[in-house]
Design goal:
Blueprint (H helix, E strand, L loop, with lengths): L12 H11 L8 H14 L3 E5 L2 H11 L7 E4 L6 H8 L3 E4 L22 E5 L10 H11 L2 E5 L7 E4 L2 E4 L6 E5 L12 E5 L2 H11 L23 H12 L1 H19 L6 E2 L8 E2 L5 E5 L7 H10 L15 H7 L7 H9 E4 L7 H17 L1
Parallel strand pairs: 2-3, 2-4, 4-5, 5-8
Antiparallel strand pairs: 1-9, 6-7, 6-11, 8-9, 10-12, 12-13
Helix pairs in contact: 1-7, 2-7, 3-4, 3-6, 8-12
Bound molecules: pyridoxal-5'-phosphate (PLP).
């Protein structure tokens, strides 16, 4: 039986042509595609400025720097995430203060943020995990009340929306700075890449200088006015991004369709599994991955279930291992099991199933029936 991958980028002939077209020009980096991609992407999200970089992680790092977060400052964030949302704080020797998650949305439990705020707290870094918007109403209120910044990690949530007051707003439009990522498993890809969005010109200019070796806009190539990095993204990558963004709505609906097909087939396994969060009156999900949770006793057999799924040619994973329990976080901060009980409970029970635009009904049938057979036997 053929193997079903966990994720797969959706690349068409138009994408390929736009990449090849760049190769016929002399502008492989810092060229017109970069500017166009930044403009189109910031428009899509409703932000004034976009600074494209070579990864989501670089983008997060530059947000931390651009908002002036430094040694000993504290940033409140979630332990249930991809590791770079906390690492970016460590890059600047600041301290991530973890806040446990809400068991439904799997996002930072906004009601628990305030108790963590102290004199050194500079920012909240919410992550819209698995494409589900965080409680931005509460987070924005806290940010205003205590005058602390918001760095929005929207790397998994391209196209997701949150209703604030009467208005639906896209994730990535709330933070003082926000970040998207374009690794091949994301909703759209540039191969590798990311982008920082903001509304203030000074943040955009600073991030843009840091990305390009500390050069100043319009300055000399060999003049560096600050310590910078090479976080540039090439025009080749940006051309792919432009082409992908042109059909983002189509790609997002295809993903949503896959999520609903899964729901149809997996609902009958209700006694064994909890389906992912599908949205509520203030949240529209942008489907990034499809993560189910094992309920009750079957959760004890997760490793075995993952093993059997893989044996049957179905790729799967256990998203995520809590950040605070990763080896170097334990060593550096003394975290231990039990510190963030909701995160740990959820993390032990998850199974990410194959998920991408072009997952066929036939594949979904096969995945669902394989899972059914395994669950009824463990
Ligand atoms: C993908 C992702 C990133 C950035 O990843 P890169 O591989 O550096 O582009 C950051 N945060 C989260 C939550 C992610 O899922």
């Amino acid at each position: 039986m053929n193997k079903i991958p966990l994720s797969k980028p959706d690349i068409n002939e138009k994408d390929i042509k736009s990449v090849v077209d760049v190769l016929r020009t002399p502008n492989l980096s810092l060229g017109p595609r970069l500017i166009e991609f930044e403009k189109r992407f910031s428009n899509y999200t409703g932000r004034r400025y976009g600074v494209a970089v070579n990864s989501g992680t670089s983008g997060l790092h530059l947000c931390v720097k651009s908002l002036g977060i430094k040694e000993e400052d504290e940033v409140i964030t979630t332990p249930f995430s991809f590791i770079s949302s906390a690492n970016c704080v460590l890059f600047e020797r600041a301290r991530p203060l973890f806040c446990d998650i809400d068991e439904e949305t799997l996002n930072i439990d906004a009601e628990k943020i305030e108790e963590l705020i102290g004199p050194k707290t500079r920012a909240i870094l919410p992550v819209h995990i698995f494409g589900v918007p965080c409680d931005m109403k509460t987070i924005c209120r806290i940010s205003d009340l205590y005058n602390i910044k918001i760095i929005e990690d929207s790397c998994e949530a391209l196209g997701a929306e949150y209703k604030l007051g009467e208005r639906w707003k896209k994730t990535g439009s709330f933070g003082d700075a926000s970040v998207f990522a374009f690794y091949p498993n994301k909703q759209m890809t540039t191969g590798e890449g990311g982008i920082i969005l903001c509304d203030k010109s000074n943040i955009a200019e600073f991030a843009s200088s840091l990305r390009n070796q500390g050069r100043e806009e319009g300055g000399k190539w060999i003049e560096h006015i600050r310590l910078g990095y090479n976080y540039r993204i090439s025009d080749i990558n940006c051309a792919l991004g432009i082409s992908q963004l042109e059909r983002i709505d189509e790609m997002l609906s295809a993903r949503e369709k896959v999520a609903f097909s899964y729901k149809e087939r997996l609902s009958e396994l209700d006694e064994y599994i909890k389906l992912p969060f599908y949205g509520d009156p203030v949240r529209r999900v942008s489907w990034f991955v499809y993560v189910i949770r094992l309920k009750g006793k079957v959760a004890d057999s997760r490793e075995k279930i993952l093993g059997v799924l893989r044996e049957k040619g179905i790729s799967c994973s256990s998203y995520f291992q809590p950040i605070h329990l990763q080896k170097f976080y334990r060593e550096k901060f003394g975290f231990k099991p039990g510190d963030f009980p909701v995160t740990e409970k959820v993390a032990k029970s998850t199974i990410a199933l194959p998920f991408y635009n072009k997952l066929t009904e036939g594949d979904i049938d096969r995945i669902a029936s394989t899972l059914r057979n395994i669950l009824r036997r463990v």
